[in-house]
Write a structure and sequence with these properties.
By secondary structure, the chain is of the alpha/beta class. It contains 13 helices and ten strands. The protein has helices at 46-58, 83-96, 110-120, 137-155, 158-168, 175-187, 198-208, 211-214, 222-229, 238-246, 264-274, 289-292, 294-305, and strands at 7-9, 12-13, 20-21, 23-26, 32-37, 61-66, 102-107, 125-131, 251-256, 279-282. A hairpin with a 6-residue loop joins strand 2 and strand 3 (20-21). It is globular. Keywords: Hydrolase. GO terms for molecular function: peptidase activity.
Length: 306
């Protein structure tokens, strides 16, 4: 019997700073809670909210969407864009929704936020799901530059090779370096699924025609603030993940086989941490796996959490 699912929207104030946090919940609050943590810095939850939040709620979950302080729709000129602020935001959500525990569903940079939060507040997290999530930043940047170099060399693209050479001379702990690495990855279609399906094309098209796309706000200063104010700005979170697993919190990992920002060695390492039964690698799928292969993505969530 199909459940009647109600979506509730309200803005809450963070007591710590007095600023407003964009937050929306989908589904029945009596169901298992899932908090989606978006990418960035400078990201937002609009794509996930538009395409996937309600569908996940329809499957029997209480899905909470938010944009971190100073990012997306949670405008705050005083935000420092640090992990500490991100933890405060999450703790406020737990308090406001009277959550004792929740599953953290983390995408891209959100994986670092969720991992460090789980390590610090293990009592608040009953499952950690890494969905195309970062976990070893420098290894990701190295893979991007090495793989793009091979492509440019094969094409004899001297302009691209010169650009890569310039990137390699940048400070590796800088917003400029991070942006440059992801820019060349994007130029080489590392974030796009190779063969879009009719279902994925419809999801992307519907998103671009929606009000969510109109509020796809990107704070260009967020990465600069993050690298200025956060000491842990280029990390490998695998030691934290191993600690979390040792403490008995299940870790699940789902990645796209054609997500160009991760090497096969990285994928194998995260599979080793999560475990065979807690891991899936989706075919014809890149970075935005909850859109590229939505049905498979949702099936995994059900299998793991139900």
């Amino acid at each position: 019997m199909k459940k009647l699912v109600l979506a509730f929207f309200f803005t809450i104030s963070l007591f710590a700073s007095g600023q407003s946090l964009y937050i929306k919940s989908y589904g029945n609050k009596k169901e298992k809670a899932i908090i989606f943590i978006h990418g960035g810095p400078s990201g937002n939850s609009t794509l996930f909210e538009s395409t996937t939040a309600q569908k996940l709620a329809d499957l029997g979950f209480y899905v909470i969407i938010y944009d971190r302080r100073g990012e997306g729709r949670s405008a705050d000129p005083e935000a420092k864009i640090t992990y500490a602020e991100a933890f405060e935001d999450l703790n406020t959500i737990y308090t406001k929704y009277n959550l004792k525990t929740a599953t953290l569903l983390a995408h891209s940079f959100g994986g670092l936020v969720a991992t460090l939060y789980t390590e610090k507040y293990p009592q608040n997290v009953n499952n950690l799901i890494l969905a195309g999530a970062l976990f070893s930043q420098q290894e990701t940047y190295d893979h991007i530059l090495n793989s793009v170099t091979k492509i440019a060399t094969a094409k004899k693209d001297t302009t691209q090779l010169a650009k890569i050479n310039a990137i390699e001379k940048l400070n590796k702990n800088s917003a400029e370096y991070r942006k440059a690495c992801f820019d060349v990855a994007s130029e080489n279609n590392y974030f796009k699924m190779p063969n879009p399906t009719e279902a994925s094309k419809k999801l992307y098209n519907d998103y671009e025609a929606s009000d969510f796309f109109k509020t796809n706000i990107r704070n260009k200063n967020a990465p600069l603030l993050f690298y200025k104010n956060e000491k842990q700005n280029n990390i490998d979170s695998r030691p934290s993940l191993n600690k979390i697993k040792k403490n008995g919190i299940p870790i699940y990992a789902i990645y796209g086989k054609e997500d160009g920002i991760f090497s096969s060695a990285q994928i194998n390492s995260i599979k080793g941490i999560a475990g065979q039964n807690h891991f899936d690698l989706l075919d014809n799928c890149s970075h935005y796996l909850f859109v590229d292969q939505q049905n498979q993505f949702l099936r995994n969530i059900i299998k793991w959490l139900k």
